[in-house]
Design goal:
The structure holds 3 protein chains of 3 kinds. Chain A is an alpha/beta fold. Chain A is built from 12 helices and 12 strands. In chain A, strands 6-7-8-3-9-10-12-11 form an 8-stranded mixed β-sheet, sandwiched between helices. In chain A, strands 2-1-4-5 form a 4-stranded antiparallel β-sheet. In chain A, helix 4 packs across helix 5, helix 5 packs across helix 6 and helix 6 runs parallel beside helix 7. Classes of the chains: A alpha/beta, B mainly alpha, C alpha/beta.
Chain lengths: ~350, ~300, ~325
Amino acid sequence: MTTDPLLKVTNLTKTYTGSPSMVARLLGRKPVHVRAVSDVSFSVGRGEILGLIGESGCGKSTLGRAILRLHEPSSGRVEFGDADVTALSPPEMKAMRRRMQIIFQDPYASLNPRRTVGDIVGLPLQLHGLENGREDMREKVAMMLDKVGLKAGQIDRYPHQFSGGQRQRIGIARALISNPEFIVCDEPVSALDVSIQAQIIQLLLELKREFQLTYLFISHDISVIGYLSDRVAVMYLGEIVEMGPVESVLATPRHPYTQSLMSAVPEVDGTGKGQRVRLKGDLPSPLDPPSGCKFHTRCPLAIDICRQRKPVTETVGKGHSAACHRLAERLSLLEGAAQ
Amino acid sequence: MSVIETNATVAAESLFRRNMAAFMENRLAFGSAIVVVLFVFMAIFAPWIAPNDPYNTNLFFRLQPPVWMDGGEWAYPLGADALGRCILSRIIYGARVSIFIGAAVILVATTVGILAGLAAGYLRGWVDVVISRLVDILLGFPYLIFAIGLMAMMGPGLGNIILALAYKEWVIPCRVVRGETLVTRELEYVEAARALGASSKHIMLREILPNILSPVIVVATIRMAHVIILEASLSFLGLGVQPPTASWGAMVADGRAFILESWWVSTFPGVAILLLVLAINVASQGLRDAFDPRFTE
Amino acid sequence: MKDPILLDVRGLRTVFDTRAGRVCAVDGVDVIVQRGECLGIVGESGSGKSVTFASVMGLVRPPGRVEAGEIIFDGVNLRQLPPRQMQALRGRDIAMTMQDALTALNPTLTIGEQLAEMLAAHADDLPRSRSDRRRVIRARSVDMLTLVGIPSAGDRLGQYPHEFSGGMRQRIMIAIALASKPRLLIADEPTTALDVTIQAQVLELISNLRAEFGMSVVLITHDLGVVAEHCDRVMVMYAGQVVEEGPTERVISDPRHPYTRGLLASVLRPGLRGQPIRPIRGQVPELIDLLPQCRFMDRCPEADEDCRHLIDMRPVGPGRRARCIRTALPTTEKAKA
């Protein structure tokens, strides 16, 4: 499945610099650096869904936006097909945007309230000269609306006249109308009700098949990721701590963070009860990340070396890798907790 | 709450129409808006409404009192000034000066302010630094004193008055627009437009501007009242519109010498200023409540 | 022996008069909360689950109002209670935590001040002298924060809400809600804004505190998983009505209302990979000018002409009720036979 990588990300880093206020600068305070994404490498094969999972503040959304250069990466390379996205000039980048798109989390904030659905969905056609006049544009928009399950007659309505799920469909239509190859889905169902979530996921899977799309699917919900991804990458504080085929990662999670993430999800059928790994404390501040392995402050398995040295990423199975000092002991956290 | 959300999907009317409906419900504001409209009509149709020629001097009617006082007559309903000119007619013609200058200054200032504010708020970087410093410096200028200085330097004339008042006025919409832009540029629909490959110009004018126009319009109407007072002040000081053109400020000044015996010469133009400014203020507050509920909550 | 029923809501109807018409957000809802139990309220946005309990708390503000129904808490009809007594009861006997802890806490007061306010307002065993009072309140505040798992509580009393993380703020709000040892805690989406690892901590905290204080808990949520793990009984709401209620395990293993079934089928699980999902089609109806018929009809795969009339809750098993003619059919047929 991963024979032909469409997207290749190498050592991508995104650092934000908070410039201190005038007073703070006079007092000799230095600017603050936050590494939102730290030295991340992975690739996504053509036609694949890579699920990117992590809690809020782990840098998963920043990573998605850095790939699209919505937030300019600080260092590292993003290759798409045979182009180096990070090296493109502004006009080249504009042309590239037709091929890589994004679907946003918040169906209320992501649509301009003052523009009609026709204008919103038709904008990519206008920007990239993909239409022959207004009538042609409306026709294409109407066709796209039909594809995402809206009515062509709704083309002149404003976003506030739609429900959350319908708005998300508009966002999907906008992302797909320029016929892209790759889509970053940034928590596209997190803001929706459960029954609507299922509708939208079904739609995204159908469209993927029809348009031969490749997704980077960002979510905090391991159930969603587990359901639809081919491969999954787990992020913690800006780093990928575990990555591999979804069956392998979910069946035999090797990083203690992945294990705790999975056991924290409440299950409808109550299977999660009993063996439960509870993490202590909160996510550390990214302003002052822990030394060594960033997870050591919450890890039940942490030993001295975890506090001192950063673990290297090791292969633990076919296409499955994890970064943890205690992999060698093959000590499953669940077994450890049961003892 | 979820209920509000339900309403949003129910209402098939546009946002503008909903706001307009809220505005109409505010009786006081709506009444004030009608007063403003009446003043505008008065200005436009002055030649047809005014009972006399406002420039026609007739020393025979010098300081003639209004009609309801002893010695008054219907030919000069509000009396006449020191040169025997009809006060009512001069007030009607004076509305042209006040409203035209007020509108022109606000138009120039708002246009400049919107462009500068959008550039500063969206492009950030050095553009923002330059514009924001300029705004800070101008805010430190005493408005009227500099306007007087400018008028003294440039000499009288309609264009010069507009310049002398607009030199600083643009700062106000600029600050509003910059603030709103800073908030709006972070919204996902702006990011979506960037992700689609839209240019900065498209994003500023098509995506951001329509969404921040309400507070700008509200501020513009509030400031219009202020500019009308400033113009009257300049004219009062003799630096505004030059005689014999009728201007409310100059009329108030003209009557100063006779304020004890012929109070009507100064008072009626003063009342006109008060009425128009008050009406604009009340109407604009109604607009603000209807279009920008953030201010009231 | 005390009446085992702590809260008994009957025929609650809460409406909002809006420009577009009258929105009937809660329409004929009955709720019973037993002493010491945890009741889960499940529904999507617009189901009326939050408005129901805002009505119980007397927190519905115009244009909304409680139009009909009885709200009996421990033998007292809350709808007939004078505002001042209602205010005293709120916080002392019934406490509520909100989904968004950042906006629910006062940003200008320290955590210590907010806790002290609550403790002083609702405790009657405080010493007379001011310095003693302050000492006791401080000691109790530290106890409360320690109880909800905030480390070095004494030092953190002087901090403001924004200095805490999301999970910590939710705990603080729970601490404030519990300061007066209420008999009923209404937790409105306590974990929706939180990450899963933090969510698990907060839910476990609520469960432990319920056992410790012997209070009843109403857990309002959209997450069936949360209900399955923490609630004794569950009520499923749809479009302002209760559509199914009963013991959690029974409702989840054998749902009787098509909406409950659809909701369960919409919950994704990694184990379902490759299998098609069967989401509920369509969307929640507008709560304006509703026809006298089953409200789930338009989305229901089993609906037919028989559903075009008002449908009451019907018993579908021990302690179970559902609002659907299909599930009730076996019982009626038995009655005929």
